[in-house]
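To make the argument concrete, we let one protein speak, a sequence paired with a row of structure tokens, as a model reads it:
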Amino acid sequence: MVKGERGVSKYIGFYRGKTQKTPKRIYRLEKMAGEPANSEDYLFVSGRSPKMSLSAIQKRFKCWVGGYKPFEILYSIHSARHTYGTMLYRNTKDLRMVQKQLGHSSCQVTEVYADVLREDTAKAVNGLYENNV
């Protein structure tokens, strides 16, 4: 934060080596961190509209992984969403909550995230046997 004219505080952001004012929406998003979001709040916002388009999000994600080809192959917006769902289920064990967070129409779709944990369990159980033999 920087003090501007007449004592007004301004947030300055850095993007690709250029200095720019951080849009007010991002400041408000940072202020709201930790507050419950409603269904009309967007996770990705832009300076031009209240939400970012899917292609803009995908381009930004590609920039975040740095254009490193193996990351581009392994990681996508969908894999990040899947990781979020899996981690949420791993921490809460509440399939219904994960279903609502991801906007799935039925729990059967969301059960994919529980299956991942079953695989983790099988590996852990097999590892117990292998480590003790």
In short: The longest strand covers residues 12-15.
